[in-house]
Amino acid sequence: MENNKKTKEKKTIASVIKAIEVIEYIAHSEKEVGVTEISNGLNYGVSATYHLLNTLKECNIIVQNDRTKKYSLGLKLWQIGMLAYGQNHISITLKPYLRKLRDLTGETANLTIMDNYQIVYIAQEESNRLVKMFTTTGATAPLHCTGAGKILLAHKPEEIQNLILERIELTKYTDNTIVNKEELLNELKKIRENGYGFDNEERELGVSCIGAPVFDLNNDAIACITISGPTARFTKQNKKKWVDIVVQISKEATNRLKTIN
């Protein structure tokens, strides 16, 4: 072994990684799931999966339906999630700016970050309108077809952009979804130059979005503030007005973050 070796191999516990993957599998399922389905979905042995489920059940992380014998997430995980949310200084600090953005535009305001090659919604202020867009805190969405995803990707170094684009699938959700890499790179360049970006019904028909990045002390785009709503309200006149508001609020949020870091 070389004497000048500066780093050591990271040691991990495989069973913990598998337990987390089981939790994520259950979390992304639309209904209760059984041991065989989880085993097949994760390519784990049935016996090993059963032991993982029993351990998670014993810790109240998941619960089992006595009738169907299938599993779903437990309240203990929700409690942990709420504690994590309370410790997230970004979402807590920027909540007032989401409320301000919501009040100025009338549309739902969102705060997102990038994690594991997707965006994660970490805070939201819902529109007071009868017809509105909203999502669950903790929900995820693809990078290439969302306003926030493209904005956060646009502010990554070129080599990181290419690495991410090699690892994600440019799935086509609507006729407006950008599925060509070169076209997407051009879009990212435009977003970086403008300082804001759009989702023009690229993930879901009838839904539009405007967003701008939030930077930290190192001028890294660590979050994105957006508004989302029915496309019918995102008229040319409103979009022109709302872009200025979103960009201004994102600058105020950036300045706030830099004062506390």
Q: Outline, from the CA principal axes?
A: globular
CATH topology title of the largest domain: Beta-Lactamase
**CATH architect. name of the largest domain:** 2-Layer Sandwich
Order of helices and strands: HHHEEHHEEEHHHEEEH
Number of helices: 9
Helical residue percent band: 40-55%
What is the end-to-end distance? 40 Å
Uncertain stretches = 1-8
Q: Structural class, from helix and strand content?
A: alpha+beta
Brief overview:
With 261 residues, this protein is α+β, with helices and mostly antiparallel strands.
Describe this structure in words.
This protein is of the alpha+beta class. It has 2 domains: 14-79, Winged helix-like DNA-binding domain superfamily/Winged helix DNA-binding domain (Arc Repressor Mutant, subunit A), CATH 1.10.10; 88-260, Beta-Lactamase. It is 47% helix and 18% strand. The chain has 9 helices and 8 strands. Strands 5-4-3-8-7-6 form a 6-stranded antiparallel sheet. A two-stranded antiparallel sheet has the order 1-2. A hairpin with a 2-residue loop joins β3 and β4. α1 crosses α3 and α2 packs across α3. It starts with 13 loop residues before the first helix and ends with a helix. Residues 1-8 have low confidence and may be disordered.
Write the layout of secondary structure elements.
Elements lengths: L13 H14 L7 H8 L3 H13 L3 E3 L6 E3 L1 H13 L1 H17 L2 E8 L2 E8 L14 E2 L5 H8 L3 H10 L13 H14 L2 E4 L6 E9 L5 E10 L5 H25 L1
Antiparallel strand pairs: 1-2, 3-4, 3-8, 4-5, 6-7, 7-8
Helix pairs in contact: 1-3, 2-3, 5-9, 6-8
